[in-house]
Design a protein that fits this description.
The protein is mainly α and 160 residues long. It has two domains: 56 residues, no CATH class; 70 residues, no CATH class. Helices cover 62% and strands 0% of the residues. The termini are far apart. About 5% of the residues have low confidence.
């Protein structure tokens, strides 16, 4: 193995630029998750800004931070339904699935039963939560390219 000798007097890159380049290389080697957690714990709490710096979506940043128990209460179309958004969330926890048409049908069946339960007791907010979850399932399936699965949710929404 040949040993490389570095002559700092002959370097073509100024030391400051070299340090910046090394910093960028180190940043690339970090996982997105570790970079998100590091930025947050170092005081950057704006989810949008973290997403921009890491090169990802705010939903992903929020999911990472929620999984690390650093934040609570961030919800959008792509955050997990396993975390409680409100009082009704516990009824709908892990109900949403669209990995195939059968899973989507099972989800809609569960959502429908909960919708009917809330209808029987006159709880319009519970019914609305069921509708929102069905719409979330439809949108997630659609944006994942699962059009048949999305149609299962669409049909249920159309009839409710």
């Amino acid at each position: 193995m040949q040993q490389q000798e570095i002559n700092f007097n002959e370097m073509t890159m100024p030391l400051a630029e070299f340090a910046e380049e090394e910093s960028r290389e180190t940043e690339k080697r970090q996982t997105k998750k570790s970079r998100i957690v590091e930025l947050f714990t170092n005081g950057l709490t704006d989810i949008g800004e973290i997403a921009e710096r890491v090169g990802t979506w705010p939903s992903y940043v929020a999911s990472v931070l929620q999984s690390a128990n650093l934040i609570k209460g961030y919800f959008d179309l792509y955050t997990t339904t396993a975390m409680d958004q409100n009082l009704y969330s516990r009824y709908f926890r892990n109900v949403l699935s669209f990995k195939n048409v059968e899973a989507a049908k099972e989800s809609v069946e569960k959502i429908g039963k909960l919708y009917e339960h809330f209808e029987r007791i006159g709880d319009r907010a519970g019914q609305h939560h069921a509708e929102v979850l069905a719409l979330t399932g439809r949108n997630r399936a659609r944006w994942s390219g699962k059009l048949e699965e999305a149609r299962v949710f669409e049909e249920w929404l159309f009839n409710h």
